[in-house]
Amino acid sequence: MNPQENGDYLATQALRPFEIERGERLLYRLTEFGRLLWEVGIDVGPRKMLDLAETLNYIDITSQGDFYNTLKCSLLPRHEQEMVFNDLYNYYWFQRDRQEGKGNEGQWSPKRNERQLRLPPSELKRLAEHLNTSGNEQRRELRPEMRQSERHHRHAERLDDDDDDLGDPQGTAYSAIEQLRKKDFESFTWDEMQEAKRLMAEMRWDLGMRPTRRKRPSRTGSYPDMRRIVRRNLKHGGELIELTWREIKRKPRPLVIICDISGSMSLYSRLLLHFIHTISNGLLNVEAFVFGTRLTRITRQLKRRDVDEAVRDVSKTVQDWSGGTRIGDALHFFNHKWARRVLGRGAVVLIISDGWDRGDSTVLEVEMDRLQHSCHRLIWLNPLLGSPDYRPLTVGMKTALPFIDNFLPAHNLDSLIDLGNLLQSIGDERPMRDAATRRKAVAAWSKPRV
Amino acid sequence: MDQGQQEVGTFATIEDVQRAMFAQRYIADRSLATAVFLALKQRKPLLLEGEPGVGKTEVAKVLAAVLDTPLIRLQCYEGIDVSTAVYEWNYTRQMLHIRLMEAGGINRQEELKEIFGPDFLIQRPLLQAIDPANAKAPVLLIDELDRSDEEFEAYLLELLSDFQITIPEIGTIRALEPPVVVITSNRTREIHDALRRRCLYYWIDFPALDKEYSIVLARMPDVPERLARQVCAFVHELRAADLFKAPGVAETLDWISSLLALNQLDLVEGPVRDTLGALLKYQDDVLKVGGSELRKTLQKALGALKP
Fold first, then answer.
1. Residues 45-84 of B with CB under 8 A from A
2. Residues β-bridged to residue A350
3. Chain A within 8 Å of B149 (Cβ-Cβ)?
4. Among candidates A115, A169, A65, A46, which has minimal Cα distance to A317?
5. What value does the mean pLDDT of chain A take?
6. pLDDT tens figures, A176-193
7. Min CA distance, A113 vs chain B (Å)?
8. Above pLDDT 70, what percent of chain A?
9. At a CB cut-off of 8 Å and minimum separation 6, what does A308 contact?
10. Which residues of chain A make contact with B95, given a CB cutoff of 8 A?
């Protein structure tokens, strides 16, 4: 192709009648498509839309492939959202008009909405009680405000029921809080649950610091700050009289939480989600995952400020609520797909599970070993550990035990406070992880506790 | 091919980009060519993500060759800061200069200011990329951005929005023509949304079987076609297996050179087992593939080629 032809091609492209005629309509459609993307959580702002509009001058929009590629590389910000993007692209540009006609543009994907609104069984049960209906339609129509009011309703009901034996639950005196802190989550009443959530929200979290490779000016560092030294000493005619220093900057470690939400954990999982929410809002760098039979990342859902909204979002995302457990498979998935992405920079890993595992224990062993080697500290929280006669005898727990750096209970508020203290005390050194240490740890836990 | 070398941003069509990259022995999908084309037209940074070894960095190198412009590469690492990425004063020279002036008995106050002038400045990649003295906009490759920390990313965000750098002692330096920016990430850390928003995004996937075969032939024209086919089929089988780290295209090419170095013209179990280290980089993976399964995988891969 010679330059002359190039120029001609450009000219014809700029003046294609198709564009002039359809231009405005197309821009409208693009904006609408952008809004749909935004609604499903793909980060599309006005700036991106403007840039996209500009690209249409350069590409041949009559070619479907190029049009798709252009939209994708301009609007899609990350690989994980590619499937959603593709679904939406197909829906919007190919199916919507055919399916619903133009009157119905708001309800863009009934199928997806339905899937997202799936609630955990416990939530459904509670709803059914409240609504006194079991019609599926009504459940699906549910709006957040309604659920909120439903909670209030139940709250009121409880107050009536327990009036005579509990006294005034509003009078949360110090001793009441003390008691609550020691009580097992399992036996919480609904009110206590609310109180516990409130207390949790008030907890402050602090994670051990790690040295970074960045330095900052300081009075007493151990690295000379050459730039400042030269500048400062110019006034002494370049004689080095004042010295300035830089020191290593420290930052909190990343925290990765992997929480079991399978059936056996169902008594704890809601409250633990609240706990994970407070901890991820209190710390800078937290990644959270939940698993039953499969692993789901919930970091983005937990970013919402309001804890109820966040937990609700998580419930929508998670598919295997209160199902079986396959810890080994979940960790395998984590190690292969996520470890490289979230375990850099000396991360601390927190696994919350009771260790009831229906999967293959050899898988669990391999994956625990790998996980321990790729993190700075591996902490396992087990709600059952709260009971004094608990011993880690299930196959899952026995398999995992040698690879755990800290094995802690997570059954009441006090245990969470202990966890907070532990997190704060994490130092620069990794714990010993040789065979002898592992054997000792296992032996210690196998003995009956006093 | 006559479009081997192009002025920045003068590609008329996506095919031109694709062809020019092919001339530099890079096989680009039409979707990747579209992203590159738009990055040149709109002068937006191109953010490339993908598994290690799928050719992210190569895109920038090829682009520099295609545009016949220098490639300026900034390899990111944790703790990368202004003095290693943007500029640094040459302290030794400054000190020496001060001594020299003293010896020459030169008027101090006036002359001392000189030592914070351009002569004593060491340009690091980012400053080089926007130097107004550049004859042509260079290609700026910011490699493995995920390795740097958030502070650096924030700094970069600022730089990418107006392509100017302020040095307190000298003033503001602004690019005459903004560089072509290619950013790569291996996703060991999530790149912040604000930066993503500025960029065109493209995910480079492992190539399909046929594409990988064309890549091998383009990069290593001397490889016997038969061996190339067998290798691609085998690597393809491996990627389907559940490995901790699936081999990338870079590993495929490495492996072929190892096989050629051993004078292998066909995939045979023994030499394959001995050279697995060129493909697989984790002991677990080597054990998994190199065990009793190897013969089966090999047969499956070669069997698929027969028809």
1. 49, 77-79, 81, 83
2. A257, A379
3. yes
4. A115
5. 75
6. 666 777 777 777 777 787
7. 25
8. 75
9. A148
10. 230, 238
User: Tokens 């396992």 appear where?
Assistant: A380
Closest CA to A290 of A309, A275, A304: A275
What pLDDT, in 10s, does the model give residues A22-62? 556 788 888 889 988 888 888 888 888 888 888 888 888 78
Distance to chain A for B61, nearest Cα, Å: 20
Please list the helix, strand and coil fractions of chain B in percent, rounded to the nearest 5, in that order: 55, 15, 35
Name the range with the highest mean pLDDT among A126-135, A172-181, A372-381.
A372-381
Per-residue pLDDT of A87-122, as tens digits, reads 889 888 887 666 554 444 444 443 433 333 333 444
Whether residue A73 and residue B44 make contact (CB cut-off 8 A), yes or no, is no
Residue B146 DSSP label: G
Are residues A121 and A267 in contact, defined by beta-carbon separation less than 8 angstroms?
no
Please give the residue of chain B at the shortest CA–CA distance from A249. Answer: B79
Q: Which of A267, A242, A266, A251 is nearest to A325 (CA)?
A: A266
Quote the percentage of chain B above a pLDDT of 70. Answer: 94
Query: Is there a contact between B122 and B89 (Cβ–Cβ < 8 Å)?
Result: yes
Nearest to A69 among B31, B95, B196 (CB): B31
| Structure-token match 């004689």, residue found | A239
H or E segment and range at residue B166: strand B164-167
Whether B136 and B125 have beta carbons less than 8 Å apart is answered as no
For the ranges A167-181, A386-400, A415-429, B90-104, the lowest mean pLDDT is seen at A167-181
Look at residue A23 in the predicted model and tell me its pLDDT.
59
Sole residue written with tokens 């107004």:
B132
Predicted confidence (pLDDT) at residue A159 exceeds the cutoff of 50: no
Helices (H), A283-353: 299-302, 307-317, 327-333, 339-342
CA dihedral (A92, A98, A102, A103) positive or negative: negative
Which residues in B lie closer than 8 A to residue A66 (C-beta atoms)?
14, 30, 34
- Main-chain phi, psi angles of B117, to 5 degrees: -105, 175
Determine the pLDDT at residue B101.
80
Question: DSSP letter at B105?
Answer: T
A contacts of B244 (beta carbons < 8 Å): 335-336
Residue spans of alpha helices (H) in A258-326: 266-282, 299-302, 307-317
- Name A26's Cβ contacts closer than 8 Å, sequence gap at least 6: A19, A56, A61
Q: Extract long-range pairs of A227-235: CB within 8 Å, 24+ residues apart.
A: A227/B83, A227/B88, A227/B89, A227/B91, A229/B91, A230/B89, A230/B91, A230/B94, A230/B95, A230/B115, A231/B116, A234/B112, A234/B115
The ipTM is 0.78
- Nearest neighbour of B197 by CB, restricted to A13, A45, A341: A45
Q: Which residues pair with B176 in a beta bridge?
A: none
pTM: 0.73
Q: Roughly what angle, to the nearest 10 degrees, separates helices B30-42 and B14-23?
A: 110
**Using CA atoms, how far apart are residues B244 and A336, in angstroms rounded to an integer?**
6
d(CA B247, CA B144): 18
- Top-confidence residue, B215 or A226: B215
Stretch 178-237 of chain B: residues touching chain A, C-beta under 8 Å: 186-190, 193, 196-197, 200-203
DSSP assignment letter at A183: S
Q: What's the token pair of residue B234?
A: 């085998």
Write down the domain spans for chain B.
2-79+124-204, 87-118, 209-302
Domains of chain A: 3-104 (no CATH), 121-137+144-164+176-196 (no CATH), 211-251 (no CATH), 255-446 (3.40.50.410)
pLDDT at A2: 43
pLDDT (0 to 100) of residue B223 = 93
Residue burial B193-214, b: 16+ Cβ < 10 Å; e: rest = eebbbbbbbbbbebbeeebbbe
Angle between helices B225-240 and B293-305 (to 10 degrees): 130
Q: What is the structure's pLDDT at B193?
A: 87
Fold annotation for B2-79+124-204: Rossmann fold (3.40.50)
